[in-house]
Amino acid sequence: QFKKAVEEANVFIGSLIFVQELAEKVIDVVKPARESLDAVLVFPSMPEVMRLNKVGSFTMKNLGQSKSVVSDFMKKKKQEDGSSFEEGMLKLLRTLPKVLKFLPSDKAADARTFMMSFQYWLGGSPENLQSLLTMVGQDYVGPVKAAMEGK
């Protein structure tokens, strides 16, 4: 049932996937469908699940590997002040806007969308979740994007 739902979806959103058995099931289902999904948003979860993220050209496929800027930032913050993964993500959320101006505009826009999505998700109110879905839908989901043109 989960597999069928993901295969039929335009967007996958997951969060707080920290149980290994659940992480493996999510990866087994989402990874094969990832390219056909318009967006994959995974908020604080195990690194192997976070690697599924895809918002336009923004991904976290290198998270937890030595060449990942995000991973390096998280490790550095943890070493400096013993902060948790969630605290590291919040610090990244505050720091990323300063870095975005140095990225090519398309990559910056996609990274900004991911971080805005995370902020909406953390807000958790019905209005924030509606804003999250509207933003991702109008920018990345073909049928929604087409319906929004000219409005």
Explain what the structure shows.
There is one protein chain. The chain is α+β, with helices and mostly antiparallel strands. It has one domain. Helices cover 63% and strands 8% of the residues. It contains eight helices and four strands; from the N terminus they run αβαβαββααααα. A four-stranded mixed sheet has the order 1-2-3-4, with helices on one face. Helix 4 packs across helix 5, helix 5 runs antiparallel to helix 6 and helix 6 packs antiparallel against helix 7. The longest helix has 19 residues. The protein is globular and about 45 Å long. The N and C termini lie far apart (36 Å). The model has no long low-confidence stretch (mean pLDDT 82).
The class by helix and strand makeup works out as alpha+beta
Mean pLDDT: 82
**What characterizes the major β-sheet?**
4 strands, mixed
- Helix fraction? 55-70%
Pattern of helices and strands: HEHEHEEHHHHH
Question: Strand fraction band?
Answer: 5-15%
Q: Unreliable segments (pLDDT under 50, ≥5 consecutive)?
A: none
**Radius of gyration computed on alpha carbons:** 16 Å
Main β-sheet, spatial strand arrangement: 1-2-3-4
Describe the global form: globular
Question: In DSSP terms, counting alpha (H) and pi (I) runs of 4 or more, how many helices?
Answer: 8
Report the end-to-end length measured between terminal Cα atoms.
36 Å
Domains, number? 1
EC number: 6.6.1.1
Domain Magnesium chelatase subunit H N-terminal: 1-115
InterPro entries: CobN/Mg_chltase (IPR003672), Mg_chelatase_H_N (IPR022571)
Keywords: ATP-binding, Chlorophyll biosynthesis, Ligase, Nucleotide-binding, Photosynthesis
